[in-house]
Amino acid sequence: MQDLSYYEILEVSRDANQTTIKQAYRKMAKTYHPDKNPGDSEAEQKFKLCNEAYQCLSDEKQRSIYDRYGKEGLQGMGGRGGSSGGFDDLGSIFEEMFNGFGGGSRRRQNPADMEKYPLDMNVDMSISFNEAIFGCEKEVEFKYKNSCKSCKGTGAKDAKLSTCNQCRGQGQVFMKQGFMTFSQTCPVCNGSGSAPAAACGSCDGKGYHEERGNVTIKVPKGIDSGNRLRVSGKGNIGKRGTRGDLYVTFSVQSDKHFQRDGNDVYIAIPVFFTQAVAGDTLTIPSLTGELELKLDIGTKDKQHFVFKGEGIDDVHGHGKGNLIAQVNITYPKKLSDEQRELLSKLQESFGIESKPHESVLDSAIEKMKNWFK
Known about the structure:
Elements: H1 6-10, H2 18-32, H3 41-57, H4 60-69, H5 86-97, E1 121-127, H6 129-134, E2 136-147, E3 161-163, E4 172-177, E5 180-185, E6 194-196, E7 208-219, E8 228-231, E9 246-252, E10 258-261, E11 264-272, H7 273-278, E12 281-285, E13 290-294, E14 304-307, E15 323-330, H8 337-349, H9 357-371
Parallel strand pairs: 1-9, 11-15
Antiparallel strand pairs: 2-7, 3-6, 4-5, 8-9, 10-11, 12-13, 14-15
């Protein structure tokens, strides 16, 4: 994205008007803003580039220079120069975004009503391969936040708040670097715009107490790593007693024999070379019992045999996957004299069919000899 032009970054044409440019920036800024993508360095970089592109293209003077000379022409301007109001637009966009990303009213929420933490919460759970395949019941133990009654969840003694000195009540701090402006949630008030006059003694200014909880959940068949299960009303508790949801994110342990790929499951079947040549029938394990694997005569190494519907139940109830048996052909590491003789007789019994290399290699040898004549 760094190599794209400002127009390409905002996904607009070079003749786009200011309204189109502004709408494109609003859309991308909301998508990539760090507050919506915590810990995502790629999204943060895209947000900075969108910022840079908008601040240039929203100013007619800078845009004109950029169109003629590119980014090099903007160097040394020390900022925006003669601004056409782009910074005001940018500030209004940020204000809109920081009030819920919804684009509605710009009225700031009452700090006393703002929660100091998300009501929804997540816990990670590791389960075994067979628990994921067949489903199970698990007890989840977790810690959740409960709003401090003494300070009404504000973290302030007697719930008394004052305007935050760091952001002056805005909830955001802005930093300007060249002709780019960056913003972040105020680290002092965490975006509320207010700070405690004195810390609450009951919760040490945190605004909440941590409590322990547990719940038994039913894990459905076919759950996979990364899947989440929502447990309604078991999350953190807010200032007004509202309780969020608990999300359980699963990590499925690997199995020694079966390898999962979505709803399909693979199993490696070691096959001796004589079994592959003869096309033997083998008994192999499946997720629910045993299956008969009929090899083709002359089965190849790594060949797949598919058993329809013998895989994993779809977690959403959309049928089942397949079991794929992959043949891994093995060969003897040494031969006795008797075995060598028997193999020689077997090879001779196939006649010319047992020497497919001769027709190919003989012509290659003759061709090579001609190189040296």
